[in-house]
Amino acid sequence: MLFLRTTVIRHFAYSKRRLATISQDASSFRIPVIDFAKFRATKSEREKKETSNEIVSAFKESGFIYLTGHGIPTATIDSTFRKSKEFFGMPSEVKDKLAWEDPRSNRGYVKVGRERVTQSADPSEIAALREKAPDFKESMEIGRDWDSEWKNQWPEESDAPQFKSSMLNFYQICHDLHVHIMRSIALGLQLEETFFDDKINDQCHNLRLLSYPPIKRSLLESEGQARAGAHSDYGTLTLLFQDSVGGLEVQNPHTGDFVAATPIPGTIVINVGDLMARWSNDVLRSTLHRVVAPPAKQISEKETVTPARQSIAFFCNPNFSAEISCLPNCGKVAKYPSVNTGAYIVGRLAVTYT
């Protein structure tokens, strides 16, 4: 009896400690706001390290940050949003001529319901999910414009004036910011600041314009339905520009609960992708996230409709020729085998679209 009582007491004490740890982990989950201006402006190694340590610490804990002081003018972001809205406002027959065709290209227009983002890698499972609950969004995918093999799908200038020039300018601006953030990560991981420079200089990125049309709330309440299902991203980092509507949610890895990543004016939401997590041997966290419907407007006694939402995502990738394997200073035993960037990303894309 004494043995049993002692065992129960020990188990109870362990349970309390475990619950306390979980509670502490859950309450400490947050997406920090980090000012990048000092890193961009200073030549002081100490000041750069301070910002680098903040960023790497956040990526270890939550995998997400809000970045201020990023150097992209508000006017440039606003203009890009306007051009994106103009594009999606074009007639369907014009947009459909630019249809996305091939995962190796990953360029062109994706109509509502064609994509189903998920963590599954099973083509049949994804096909079933897509049939049952496609993502309620449309997108335009843009890659580097000088690619000799795969070409961007641009609308006619008469249909979308200055769309091409605006997007190519924004693409380059985002790549340049990506280089600086990767330099900060290198310093935060005790590597040379320029460690990643020659591994990302081919600019094998993806600029994705996203439009979430208004939709009746009842359609989003079907089993498994979402504006964009829970998923992680594929590459190194994602730079996300949100409008004021909101809807992005990030999963607390300690509890499984989803936490709203409420839009903060002047910030970019930045998160770690799967290849960056593999590169760092999971030192940096690639966190699940999703897009849900914001509060809806009543249109009848029994029905509400969600507002339209816009966002712009810049998916940063290593060079497609790069082999991703455990970085120095990220553990003695690699958790993952080496993987080629191009093969990995194309493989993930191939099962995502119809």
Automatic annotation (TrEMBL):
<dbReference type="InterPro" id="IPR026992">
    <property type="entry name" value="DIOX_N"/>
</dbReference>
<dbReference type="InterPro" id="IPR005123">
    <property type="entry name" value="Oxoglu/Fe-dep_dioxygenase_dom"/>
</dbReference>
<keyword id="KW-0479">Metal-binding</keyword>
<keyword id="KW-0408">Iron</keyword>
<dbReference type="InterPro" id="IPR044861">
    <property type="entry name" value="IPNS-like_FE2OG_OXY"/>
</dbReference>
<dbReference type="GO" id="GO:0046872">
    <property type="term" value="F:metal ion binding"/>
</dbReference>
<feature type="domain" description="Fe2OG dioxygenase">
    <location>
        <begin position="200"/>
        <end position="318"/>
    </location>
</feature>
<dbReference type="Pfam" id="PF14226">
    <property type="entry name" value="DIOX_N"/>
</dbReference>
<dbReference type="InterPro" id="IPR027443">
    <property type="entry name" value="IPNS-like_sf"/>
</dbReference>
<dbReference type="Pfam" id="PF03171">
    <property type="entry name" value="2OG-FeII_Oxy"/>
</dbReference>
<protein>
    <recommendedName>
        <fullName>Fe2OG dioxygenase domain-containing protein</fullName>
    </recommendedName>
</protein>
<dbReference type="GO" id="GO:0016491">
    <property type="term" value="F:oxidoreductase activity"/>
</dbReference>
<keyword id="KW-0560">Oxidoreductase</keyword>
<dbReference type="InterPro" id="IPR050231">
    <property type="entry name" value="Iron_ascorbate_oxido_reductase"/>
</dbReference>
<comment type="similarity">
    <text>Belongs to the iron/ascorbate-dependent oxidoreductase family.</text>
</comment>
